[in-house]
Amino acid sequence: MNTYSPTAPSHNPQPVLPRTEEPNAEQRRRAVRAIASASSDAADCADLLDALGLRPEEGRSIPSQRQ
After folding, report:
1. Which of 66, 62, 63, 65 is CA-nearest to residue 27?
2. What is the DSSP string of the chain?
3. Where are the domains of the chain?
4. Each residue's pLDDT expressed in tens, for the chain with a length of 67 residues
């Protein structure tokens, strides 16, 4: 007898990842700077940033806004 049924629950269901928000500009800036400080050289830094979808220019300081 075939126990497969298209409506039966799967034995290996796909995990449902929680929905997360994209990091804001400050979080991305801090991530780029942390990677840059921990990298062994410029090539290592570039590889890590690329793997994480970050750009070097995101690590530049954001000018403070005066009121």
Report:
1. 62
2. -----TTSPPSSPPP-PPP-PPP-HHHHHHHHHHHHHH-SSHHHHHHHHHHTT--GGGGSPPPPPP-
3. 25-59
4. 556 556 666 677 777 778 788 899 999 999 999 999 999 999 999 999 999 999 999 998 766 655 5
Token pair 């804001």: residue: 24
d(CA 65, CA 31): 22
Rounded to whole angstroms, the Cα distance separating 23 from 28 reads 6
Residue 18's pLDDT is 80
Q: Which amino acid is at 15?
A: P
